[in-house]
Amino acid sequence: MSADGGGRRQFFRQLVDRTLGQAADYVGDRVDGLVGRERQRLRPPGAIAEVNFLDTCYRCGNCVDVCPAKAIQHAKDESDELNGTPVIFADSQPCLVCDGLECMSACPSGALQITPRAQIRMGLAHIDHEPCLRTSGELCTECVDTCPEGERALRFDAQGAVEVIAEGCIGCGVCQWRCPSQPKAIVVLPR
User: Fold this and answer.
1) Best exposed site among 5, 40, 179, 189 by fewest CB in 10 Å?
2) Per CATH, is 50-117 categorized as 3.30.70.270?
3) Whole-prediction pTM value?
């Protein structure tokens, strides 16, 4: 093998590394941006993955119109890509996971898929024990008592602290809505 052949091979190897490296960086930045956005909003029950949701949702408002709890709202004052998409703000009105789950069947685009209640995973509750009133000795039981999924999602552990059961939590936001501590000791983050 000549020195000249090895030089060309090295040249092409560096060229491929540089080209693919730049492409990988671009894709990585795009994915990181999508993942960051996904964590910022709670979507209605049955929502498909955020990256697909944004391309699929018609922004028609059908799910907003049929929500009996008025929990689903249009995103406003964000970006052109996000404005008009359905969101739930658990602090002001959580999803009550109503019997009919009409939002899913009202969606004409497929952005909300009909999903059995037991399989709904809008988000996951996270507990911060520091602001929790139970930590300071108060016998607050609001989040556990009002959870629509009961002990399947929230319960007290052996020490009396609130415990989130990931397999049972559907991410409706009722616990966050009812939490009396400020700042909230329990918040729901999108899955």
Assistant:
1) 5
2) no
3) 0.77
